[in-house]
């Protein structure tokens, strides 16, 4: 190690010669001193004369004084050389030990690569230099040009336009001289509008006789809707959230047998709206964009009143007919389907159609805050219509299922030290409409980041870990391409995937930044925010603007949501994931999942800053990726989940009296939470005191860090029946949110509290947490708990 460091510090040829000369000079000095000492012990002269002896002694003393001066000179030179070398070695070693980059501008060196040079010039590349290189190569004009090229026309999966776009992306990757390029293909079952029967909406009388057809656009549909006919009165359900249906039950509104009229938005997906309506006993769902949520603006910045918004309604992700299995053509599947497929039909409609129907409703007035901004509508709940008794709505849905060959396109840059650890970046490629926001922006940023990192590698960057760039297919149908890939390689990825960054819908405005993320990645983003200039405020970093408004984390950091491109990676795959998004404060980009999602409208909203905003977001992601591919120890916060466990402990503590009456003790949860918190802190302390040049130890620590998210996938539920097994981000009875919701019944509605079910929920969640604590502790001899 010393020889390698010496050569790096002094050069290869000249430095080596200088080193040899220094050793020879030092050796000469030592020889001179040795000869003086030998002469001091030599016997006297044979003459025996006192004078001669005195003269010899005098000569020897003079010579000794001369040799001493010479020796002092040599010693001084050697001392300076040793001091300089030791200082430089210590300086480099210290900087190697500082594997977490200082965000104040300190340069942090690259890791040692088995003695190999880190660039063509043979010099070490520091993290600060890499950041400057990143800024230099990232080009906003290339991003904007790609968005325009990718958003010329609709390109749904299975279409000729979709295949052409996949080929173009593959060709782009090939031009970048990546280490590996490949395609991953699946046969997935997707749903499209029928070619022979159009979806229809009718007003009918009490006998079911059709009175008036309400015209629908044939392109508007909800993928994975149940097929068939639903007839009933109409009930206005606001956003169709759980709390909305609870309010309707409180008011005594008749829901069974009616058709729900729901607004787009409210923080819930179409799939969740349909699921809640189905559970409440409704027979169908109509979903419309209300001007109060999606403004209508004649300057192309709002949604026209005759436009509907399409979205899938599968309460899950991936191919719903192969849940938990990859849709490979050669694989045999059991006859099963996702429990998240709805049993009632759903159809998107425009604001004009919603206004026509809601303006005729009679019934109780809407609760406060439910009033939208539809013209000519006085907000009432229904379900009856004014006019002749018995008038109802009939909806016919005739969508068709079709097996489609989908293609995910991959490219990778192989890591130099830990190539089997992957940092993954991905973006949806398909779109029902032109898809400027839905797919164009993400794909453009993905390609530009691939080009940028490839250029950095050509100019000396040697990533420690591998980089994967992925263009996903069938994203509009519930992240089908990404989920099928996860299902195909799930047993492999939890050992290899470090983190995933979704670029889907990355730019929907330029005012506010949100991060939908796993808590493990939250600390990582802060350093990036300090270094990236806000696209709307020249000269100011994004973080400075966020901090000026108060606590930025509580406003910016949000939990992963079902339709996020990052959700499946964490909730299903146990991989830390993040999705960053620029958007407008208090304003929704209205054109996603419509035929109006074009570059022109997006540029109007951004006032011509499309390339600039995309570049800022791309730089944020790239800086985080750079840290993950550079640092010896992965910069993930393993203590972040202690807070989530503390939340449950707090709830249990507040209800301790009610629990004790039923013979339930929260002590087990407290113990598991404490074990996890201690294990996380112990690991952090051990990492701080570790020599990062010890590859064995860094490898062991990184393996434990990488698996933290995976530890929170419940072992006690089936991946087929409950794919989102994560106890904190998933969906189902096994999750923390379900447990807390059930626990709250002890005070709000005690008669609905099911003690046996709660015991099971509490036990399984607690042992999942305890298992995570045990795994984080390391080897079995490091585990010390009271069980």
UniProtKB/TrEMBL annotation:
It is found in: Cell membrane. Pfam families: PA, Peptidase_M28. Residues 408-589 form the Peptidase M28 domain. GO terms for molecular function: transferrin receptor activity. It is a single-pass type II membrane protein. The chain crosses the membrane at residues 72-94. It comes from the Eukaryota. The keyword Membrane applies. CDD domains: M28_TfR, PA_TfR. Its main location: membrane. GO terms for cellular component: external side of plasma membrane. GO terms for biological process: endocytic iron import into cell; transferrin transport. Residues 231-296 form the PA domain. Keywords: Cell membrane, Disulfide bond, Glycoprotein, Membrane, Receptor, Signal-anchor, Transmembrane, Transmembrane helix. The keyword Cell cycle does not apply. InterPro entries: PA_dom_sf (IPR046450), PA_domain (IPR003137), Peptidase_M28 (IPR007484), Peptidase_M28B (IPR039373), TFR-like_dimer_dom_sf (IPR036757), TfR1/2_PA (IPR037324). Belongs to the peptidase M28 family. M28B subfamily. This is Transferrin receptor protein 2. The gene is TFR2.
